[in-house]
Design brief:
This is Acyl-CoA dehydrogenase. This protein is of the alpha+beta class. It contains eleven helices and ten strands.
Length: 376
């Protein structure tokens, strides 16, 4: 790491006016369509996704096309704006294929650098919210070498991928194979998507089985591997913003509740022991915001330090989200343990996110590999 110079400017961790306007629009939409009772009802149903909510978010607000250049029909924004959307989606634990579709899959396609053909056409559909694409890799995958369980036999895609997030919402599956990256229609013959029972009911997982499915080759060889790696990097980096949103809601809700809950004729939040616990969470959330914003800014600016910034953000934000959610459940006392209160949704989302796109421990190993430590 080097000190900021004219060539390497210090990251901008503040939110711009446009980003705050985007936040306000997304928050208002989610408050209307994705409040706690609605999310709980969806989690208990066989259809966790709200198509009308996705249409309003993806096409109405234009969130699906934030990372897509204007030439393909997108907004031409950056990872910073997408991070703001994910903060709000995390704050509401909204079931929506935004991280997997509008970030990971979209970034993978963009990394191919195609200006026409099937890649450009698919990007246009994704930006307009007409279709949803999902990278068919396990949600825990961090490296593309571990995310190629499928192969191509006689021009047909064969293989089974377990633990694919949001596969049930996908119209198109981007399948990394030993021969390259293929686009496979989710409803095509030879494609089976079997739902799993996940810990986090707001982000369904599925096993995708490809038995001689027809696919379109989007890239082969090193190009496909590099594109998948870029998509997974963007996913890990912006997942930190979702984790930040989870932690912020947990802290705000806990502070609100402990102000209102009285014991011994005093608000429980006035007890010093609880003040210290909430103050510790606040310090962690502030630090997590800095780490998440740094990762989003590094991805947006194409910084050479982006892999390091992403690894730092994930190594830290995963634990913060889990700790904030655990404190939220505990400091709510008895009601925090009930199904009707949304606290359990945040704890489950935090726990599930903590192993997505690489665990905190694996990201700490990445930091050690990237940072040149001085000789003893």
């Amino acid at each position: 790491m080097t000190a900021p110079t004219e060539e390497t400017q210090a990251p901008d961790l503040l939110y711009s006016e446009a980003e705050e306007d985007l936040r306000a629009a997304v928050r208002a939409l989610l408050a209307d369509r994705s409040d706690a009772p609605a999310v709980l009802a969806r989690a208990e149903s066989a259809t966790p996704y709200d198509p009308q909510l996705w249409k309003a978010l993806a096409a109405g607000i234009g969130a699906a096309g934030l990372l897509v250049p204007e030439e393909f029909g997108g907004q031409g924004a950056s990872h910073r704006e997408a991070a703001v959307v994910l903060e709000e989606l995390g704050r509401a634990v909204t079931p929506a294929p935004y991280l997997t579709g509008s970030v990971v899959a979209t970034q993978t396609l963009l990394a191919l650098g195609a200006s026409e053909g099937p890649v450009a056409a698919l990007l246009g559909d994704l930006a307009a919210g007409r279709r949803v694409a999902v990278l068919a890799v396990p949600f825990a995958a961090q490296a593309p070498d571990a995310a190629r369980p499928a192969g191509v036999v006689a021009g047909r895609v064969e293989g089974t991928v377990t633990g694919v997030a949001d596969a049930a919402a996908a119209d198109v599956l981007l399948v990394p194979t030993t021969d390259g990256l293929y686009a496979v229609e989710a409803g095509a013959g030879g494609v089976a998507v079997e739902p799993l029972v996940p810990l986090d009911l707001t982000r369904p997982l599925a096993t995708v089985t490809l038995a001689g499915a027809a696919g379109t080759c989007l890239a082969d060889g090193a190009s496909a591997v590099a594109a998948v790696r870029r998509g997974l990097l963007a996913g890990a980096g912006l997942l930190a913003s979702e984790q930040l949103g989870v932690a912020e809601w947990c802290l705000a809700e806990t502070v609100r509740y402990t102000r209102e809950r009285h014991q011994f004729n005093r608000p429980v939040g006035s007890f010093q022991a609880l003040k210290h616990r909430m103050a510790q969470v606040w310090l962690e959330v502030v630090s997590a915001r800095a780490a998440a914003r740094n990762a989003a800014d590094a991805l947006a600016t194409g910084s050479p330090d982006a892999p390091l910034a992403v690894a730092v953000a994930q190594a830290y934000c995963s634990g913060v989200a889990v700790h904030a959610a655990e404190e939220c459940v505990q400091l709510h006392g008895g009601i925090g343990m009930t199904w009707e209160h949304p606290a359990h949704l945040y704890l489950k989302r935090a726990k599930a996110d903590s192993i997505a796109y690489g665990t905190a421990g694996r990201h700490r190993e990445t930091i050690a590999e990237l940072v040149e430590l001085p000789a003893p």
